[in-house]
# Entry
Amino acid sequence: MQQGRILKGIGGFYYVLPEDSSETVECKARGRFRMDGLTPMVGDRVLFETQREGHARIAELLPRKNALMRPPVANIDQLLIVLSASVPAPDWLLADKLIVQAKLLSIEPVLVLNKCDESGAAVLSAFERDYAAHFRCLRVSARRGDGLSALTDLLRGRVSCFAGQSAVGKSSLINAICPELSLETGGLSKKTARGRHTTRHAELWPAFGGAILDTPGFSLFEPDFLEQDALDRCYPEFMDLPAQCRFFGCMHISEPDCAVKERIAAGGMSPARYERYTLLAREFETRRKHRYD
# Structure
């Protein structure tokens, strides 16, 4: 049997890239997967074998290190959270949500600010202030080519997922570094100044010794509820301070003797990012209270 990675799945067929080849192999999944409640996903590492009737067959799904449900894709190494430095205005709260989602799945988040050739000083300052101290950050321009060499280096040998608002330039960035893909780009709706979704299904494209994936708009993975200690671990600014708070499960909002709030007051987190944290903390608290409703 050979080992490979599923690049896409269409109509019950899976297209697998073998480890030692640049040509994909069309495969069907073995019938036992359905009986066992298993469904192959884009990004899965698999064992497959050729069949006399022509199609190859996926015989085994190798263990996944993570899996996203929207879009369904497995074994992502890093999540490139793309923001726009001009139009549409950067959605910082969405960026923070995506960071939390990445951290929960042991995916490295990377913040990418596109359209920097069109930006004002306020957006660049907010980007650096809120993220540069704790996350890998890139400033790029798909149109002008700024920062694309650093972006390419970051992608080498890794499976990378691009995510963010529509019209921030995810597909444009991929086209700029991989022009042979010629992905459709949607731009902005003139009536609403909102992005049009152009990515319709999950597909990995081999690139730079790894693979890249574009995702449609706001999709990804969002937990129904999240315990406070899990949320704490998604914020590197908190370090190990939650264990020093007076109350177990401290939300770091209104509780007394909170070690995290003391650090924040000393400048350990930007006020804007802390304000967004409180929104997420209260949202998850509400979900925890109503999880059995």
